């Protein structure tokens, strides 16, 4: 039950972040905004970890992050912490916040596709139907007859962001047995430091 609440909260926060980030775009570059957002998240996690998390029983049960995880963490920082956010923000400069947010649903089928094709995970009929519905909805969103010249680069940038995050999701799964607070803090601070 608590896992579902955390998942729903994470999805809601992710859903509001593109329209809010779009408000900042006239003031700064996508790279700077992405860096600041991740750096702020990393500092917030560091404070949470020091003040509360390390004192809990949960933190003692988690597996620690080790040197063997550095390549996966590096890939997560590059794909999910740098390339994904910058592509999303670049795309949001060219598309409306609503359209950009809806297109971000492509992350799910991309994640599923990579998991099945590269990591040999199983996908049932329901999962396949759900992925096809998401892709179909994104194709319908892309078709906008009222616009004479829709911004293909904005669409491509958002789709690229989803692909980078799909890679990040699959890499993250490989370190899912490690302490999630520490893994996320490392990713956020590393990505924020490059912004």
UniProtKB/TrEMBL annotation:
One family name in Pfam for this protein: EamA
Source organism, top-level taxon: Bacteria
GO CC annotation, single: membrane
Membrane topology listed for this record: Multi-pass membrane protein
InterPro entries xref list: AA-Vitamin_Transporters, EamA_dom, EmrE-like
Kinase listed as a keyword: no
Keywords in alphabetical order: Membrane, Transmembrane, Transmembrane helix
Domain EamA: 2-141
Main localization of the protein described in the UniProt heading: membrane
Keyword Zinc attributed: no
Transmembrane spans: 31-51, 71-92, 98-119
Subcellular location: Membrane
UniProt similarity note: Belongs to the EamA transporter family.
Name the UniProt record assigns to this protein: EamA domain-containing protein
Originating organism: Nitrospira lenta
Lineage: Bacteria, Pseudomonadati, Nitrospirota, Nitrospiria, Nitrospirales
């Amino acid at each position: 039950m608590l896992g579902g609440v955390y998942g729903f909260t994470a999805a809601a926060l992710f859903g509001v972040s593109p329209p809010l980030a779009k408000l900042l775009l006239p003031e700064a570059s996508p790279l700077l905004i992405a860096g600041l957002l991740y750096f702020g998240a990393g500092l917030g996690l560091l404070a949470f970890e020091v003040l509360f998390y390390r004192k809990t029983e949960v933190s003692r049960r988690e597996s620690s992050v080790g040197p063997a995880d550095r390549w996966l963490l590096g890939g997560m920082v590059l794909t999910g912490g740098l390339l994904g956010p910058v592509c999303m923000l670049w795309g949001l400069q060219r598309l409306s916040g609503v359209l950009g947010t809806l297109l971000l649903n492509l992350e799910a089928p991309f994640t599923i596709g990579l998991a099945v094709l590269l990591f040999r995970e199983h996908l049932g009929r329901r999962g396949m139907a759900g992925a096809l519905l998401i892709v179909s909805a994104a194709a319908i969103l892309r078709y906008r007859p009222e616009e004479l010249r829709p911004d293909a680069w904005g669409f491509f940038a958002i789709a690229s962001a989803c692909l980078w995050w799909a890679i990040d999701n699959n890499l993250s799964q490989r370190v899912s047995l490690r302490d999630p607070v520490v893994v996320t803090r490392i990713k956020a601070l590393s990505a924020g430091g490059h912004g």
